[in-house]
Amino acid sequence: MGSRIEAIKAKLPVGAGHRGDGEPKVDPALVARRDRLVERFTAHQLDLGGVLYEMAIRDHVVMPVLLERAAVLQGVEADLKRAQAELDEAEAAVEAARAGGREGAQGAGTESNGRREPVARADAVRSCGSCGADAGPESAFCSACGEKL
């Protein structure tokens, strides 16, 4: 499992919190939080696959159990996306500060004809209609109660 976690971490942007040269840094706690969520996501993903495999070899697939585990996985994925978005924003602010503030700390965006355009957020949170818990935009089931969203 360790090699898979390291492979996932290698694909994600690395936080700048490890520099010792006095330059602006991303909070190492953000990087650590994201890394913990990557590990949790991987563990839940492996757990779900293992549960399905065990059910399949016994020819006894219990969908409510799989849906419950999938809902937990979706909740962790939503948390991971939010943490990654926070880290991306922090890294953008650090890069802007390193560039001498030319970009400014106005938030993420792209320049088009001299105007800042807001970046669409892919991590918008929805609420479960049954229990009111937060759910990610791509979640099919509530991570708290397992109801279909």
Low-confidence stretches: 14-20, 103-120
> Topology as H/E string?
HHHEEEE
Shape: elongated
Mean model confidence by pLDDT: 77
Helix amount = 40-55%
Instruction: Please list the strands of the largest sheet in the order they lie side by side.
Output: 1-2
Give a quick account of the main beta sheet: strands, pairing sense, barrel closure.
2 strands, antiparallel
Distance between the termini: 31 Å
Number of strands: 4
The amount of beta strand, in percent, is 5-15%
How does the helix and strand content classify structurally?
mainly alpha
Q: Total number of helical segments?
A: 3
Whole-number radius of gyration?
A: 19 Å
Question: Can you give me a brief rundown of this structure?
Answer:
The chain is mainly α and 149 residues long.
List the helices and strands and how they pair.
Elements: H1 2-11, H2 28-57, H3 63-98, E1 109-112, E2 115-118, E3 126-127, E4 134-135
Antiparallel strand pairs: 1-2, 3-4
Helix pairs in contact: 1-2, 2-3
Mind explaining what this structure looks like?
It contains three helices and four strands; from the N terminus they run αααββββ. The chain is mainly alpha-helical and 149 residues long. It has a two-stranded antiparallel sheet with strand order 1-2. It starts with a helix and ends in a 14-residue tail after the last strand. A hairpin with a 2-residue loop joins strand 1 and strand 2 (115-118). It is elongated and about 60 Å long.
Based on the model shown, name its key terms.
single chain; 149 residues; mainly alpha; two-stranded antiparallel sheet; 4 strands; 51% helix; elongated
